[in-house]
Amino acid sequence: MREIVIEPRREFLVPVEAERISPDVFASLAIKEIEKIEVWEGNRKAALSDLFDISGDEGPAEPEEMLITLSGDFSKVKRVGEKMACGRILAEGDLGMHAGNGMAGGEIEIGGRAGDWLGREMRGGKITVRGDAKDYVGAGYRGENCGMRGGEIVIEGSAGDYLGEHLCGGTITVGGDAGDFPGIANRGGVIVIGGDAHLPGAEMVSGTITVRGRARVLPSYQYQETVEIDGMNLKNFLGDLVEGGKGELRVASVEEEGA
Are 171 and 153 in contact (CB under 8 A)? Predict the structure, then answer.
């Protein structure tokens, strides 16, 4: 396993666009070549080594044998692991927006919190977040009909609004709560929420959403039966009937209107 360690030289006051921090890009490059990779800090172009200290094993290596360790605060560093197909990225702390965009394989592990649009339009691989994640996890970008198409996202904390918007495949698991409209316009993916959620599955056509806590259920869902899954009784609904949907929404406790 070849490891490259990246650490910010200073605190970033504006976002850094760093889509080339990826095992696929780094694998064939020597450290001196990695240092010359171009990134954008706001509207200013810079070399990677202008903003980060870079150390580790000299190359080359196969992409699947690459480990990139991000040490320090990467909360303003965007697009890390974009379109990566293999290898591993370990962020020891927080990681910024759009991490794992279009990811096809490999693994990203985030020890802290994740920014908006985590795993946007992801196709494969796995992303694990030890803390919370913000809005639009696994979603499709503006105008896209499909968000996440495959792979797996695991969030051990809570997630923000529009979790899995336009989900077309793959699995998202959240240990805590989710915000507004998780699984909106779901087209075939699986979402499991360990805590509470608000109005899950609006415009869902197919797929499955499970809320193991409380949720406000839209009136366009039709109750079917109570099912037992992993020792828990869940109310099973069919919908969203406004869309002619046949998705399954399973909720442990239904929040009544006005409650």
Answer: yes
Cα angle value 109/110/112 (rounded, 5°) = 155
Domain count across the chain: 2
Query: CA-CA distance, 72 to 99, in Å (whole number)?
Result: 16
**Residue range 64-120, pLDDT digits in tens:** 999 999 999 999 999 999 999 999 999 999 999 999 999 999 999 999 999 999 999
Whether pTM exceeds 0.70: yes
Amino acid 36 reads K
Whether 160 maps to a domain, the answer reads: yes
CA distances to 22, 148, 153, 197 from 117, rounded to whole Å, are: 17, 11, 12, 18
Bridge-based pairing of strands 44-47 and 38-41 is antiparallel
* 176 in the same domain as 250: yes
Contact 170, 191 (CB under 8 A): no
State residue 190 phi and psi, 5-degree precision. -120, 130
Where does a domain end: 58, 83, 112? 112
For residues 192 and 173, the answer to whether their CB atoms sit within 8 Å is yes
Residue 155 and residue 106 share a domain: no
Domain for residue 121, yes or no? no
Beta bridge partners of 153: 127, 172
